[in-house]
Amino acid sequence: MKSSGTRTTLLILFALLLTLPLTATAEPQTAEGFFNRANVKLGEGDMVDGAIADYTKAIELNPKFTDAYQHRGVAKQMMGDLDGAIADSSKAIELNPKSAAAYQCRGGANQRRGDLDGAIADYTKAVELNPKSVAAYSSRGSTKFQKGDWDGAIADFSKYIELSPKDANAYNCRGEAKKKMGDLAGAEADFAQAAKLRLLPDGFPPPSPPR
């Protein structure tokens, strides 16, 4: 499950990238300008010399720039710098304790580092701050699966399904948890629904299911 949990985390990070503003000036003069250019570079995969450097410049110009810390944490996590991602996410949380995205990012880094309890605590806070966060329920369910908490995983994956009923991966994940519980009929029903959704034009194709 560890490798699948990592894949799920990275997919969620990639989804977050799609929400970043993609506008930038050629030669930034302000913290916002460096931040916007960093978002473009992050979307292009230009991490260290590009996005991270520009987020760092934005922070130098505005040390209370919460989003710059949070986004730099995303970039560091994608680069595998988990300690750096946790440090930046924690700073974003310090500046804005109501940032669900910062808790989500820190939870992902904790999960990948193997601190499953810390990850669950962060995802739980993200859920409290944003009860409609598909990413938080999906990630917390994945982490509970890693811990062998099948009931908890099923509950989170069920909420994942409620919020995103056309996502085949949600049914796949819940099916795997049900299979671990010995509910083979329930698992087969979820796998069948996942297969059905993959055939629909607007269904979301899933990554590999948890193991």
Helix and strand succession?
A: HHHHHHHHHHH
Beta strands, count: 0
> Helix amount, in percent?
over 70%
Radius of gyration: 18 Å
Low confidence ranges = 203-211
How much strand? under 5%
CATH topology of the largest domain: Serine Threonine Protein Phosphatase 5, Tetratricopeptide repeat
Global morphology: elongated
What's the story with the biggest beta sheet? none
Number of domains: 2
User: If helices are DSSP runs of H or I spanning 4 or more residues, what is the number of helices?
Assistant: 11
Mean pLDDT: 88
Please give the structural blueprint.
Blueprint: H1 2-17, H2 31-44, H3 47-61, H4 66-78, H5 82-95, H6 100-113, H7 116-129, H8 134-147, H9 150-163, H10 168-181, H11 184-198
Would you give an account of this structure?
The chain is mainly α. It has two domains: 2-132, Serine Threonine Protein Phosphatase 5, Tetratricopeptide repeat (Alpha Horseshoe); 148-211, Tetratricopeptide repeat domain (Serine Threonine Protein Phosphatase 5, Tetratricopeptide repeat, Alpha Horseshoe), CATH 1.25.40. It contains eleven helices and no strands. The model is unreliable at 203-211 (pLDDT under 50).
Can I get a quick summary?
The chain has 211 residues and is an all-alpha fold.
